[in-house]
Amino acid sequence: MPTMKKRRVEREVASPAEESDAHSSGSESTGAENPSNENEDSNTATSTPKTFKDLGIIDSLVEACETLGYKAPTPIQAESIPIALQGRDIIGLAETGSGKTAAFALPILQNLMEAPQSFYGLILAPTRELAYQISQSFEALGSTINVRCCTLVGGMDMVPQSIALGKKPHIVVATPGRLLDHLENTKGFSLRALKYLVMDEADRLLDMDFGPLLDKILRILPQKRNTFLFSATLSSKVESLQRASLSNPQKVSVSSKYQTVSTLQSYFLLKPHKWKDLYLVYLLNEMVGKSVILFTRTVHETQRVAFLLRSLGFGAIPLHGQLSQSSRLGALGKFRSKSRDILVCTDVAARGLDIPSVDVVLNFDLPTDSKTYIHRVGRTARAGKAGIAISMVTQYDVELFSRIEDALNRKLPEYETEKDEVMTLAERVGEAQRYAIMEMKAIDEKKNTKGNKFGKGKGKRTRDNMDQEEG
């Protein structure tokens, strides 16, 4: 196993920047992770550099940061960038929203300017939306040097992607399955001269069974390269990937596994399952005019709740892994542009996505684990802003919710409601429920196959659909 030095930093409060996943000030993480090995070196940083120039970033990239509203480095940027500029491999432990994208993009772009070449950097991401977001961040940060990026994801026509590769981009951002398809089938595409490999959300990449594909990709890539591995947690799978792909890495940790930011107000709402839709509509009436992300557990429930809310006049739009790629991007675009104020989604939107100005997160269905809860509620209260998270708890969820509170190491307050006001909605909500059921039946009939209903009959995943989130 290669030797590995570790640096640990407490979360220094930098001046809040724009709410970008490329630079938001730690939406889920507020503390430092304890060292896992007592024999490792642990040098605690005492201050965060005030500017990107202090980190060694050149003026043209500093200018790009200022244009994008990045006012000061976040902890992960302050620790990672100087190490990356020294040519070291990095293992970065940081949650989504902590500024990871700029932490690896800025050093890559700076070194690209010194020795320009095509196919200079490869960034692997677990989901299509995250891949597009990373590509946009590279293009924005590299706008002053005219950096060319290419995004390779499943669910899209390979021909336009092959044409884009033929134009010799500097940076390729890809999901593993589609990248391997192009490496095997696109004439003239090779990464033999690659200088930088980044594996973002590595724990999620491995959770989605990309392991065998990553092994194939690593065998194709040149041994002499710089590698950055960013992950929320350092699991045994991630450690195995680290040993296979990094050389003498330095570890930087600025995250804590189960913490939320102080500006987030978290509540629960304990009500019988049969009244769940009623209380959901009551809550949304209370929050009219605010942007809301509403999480459900299954694709079927995501679609049903979206139909329910639309029939009641709410601007709700669904987002889940069984939508076409154009529909998924369209849903995100409408929510970001505020033409729709409620995004009903599965955990496809729980992690990695930068959706600015979310006022409220509603857990219509509780997540099955505490880590996912942290990622979900981290969609709000970003970059120093306030936010509200409310989790709906039924009689079937009490034990699950108790485990979430234990992980958070605190008891959440209950959100106050007026039962009489809620019950006045019963007739209208009942009609909306019947409408939603009819719409779901119509969708199932249109599918015209028994095993291909929403949330059912997944079957074996191919490379082309592996980069969809689990429903």
TrEMBL record:
Signal peptide: none annotated. InterPro entries: DDX47/Rrp3_DEADc, DEAD/DEAH_box_helicase_dom, DEAD_box_RNA_helicase, Helicase_ATP-bd, Helicase_C-like, P-loop_NTPase, RNA-helicase_DEAD-box_CS, RNA_helicase_DEAD_Q_motif. Pfam families: DEAD, Helicase_C. Its main location: nucleus. It is found in: Nucleus. Residues 81-252 form the Helicase ATP-binding domain. It comes from the Eukaryota. Residues 462-471 have a biased composition (Basic and acidic residues). It catalyses: ATP + H2O = ADP + phosphate + H(+). GO terms for molecular function: ATP binding; hydrolase activity; RNA binding; RNA helicase activity. GO terms for biological process: gene expression; ribosome biogenesis. ATP-dependent rRNA helicase required for pre-ribosomal RNA processing. Involved in the maturation of the 35S-pre-rRNA and to its cleavage to mature 18S rRNA. Interacts with the SSU processome. This is ATP-dependent rRNA helicase RRP3. It comes from Penicillium steckii.
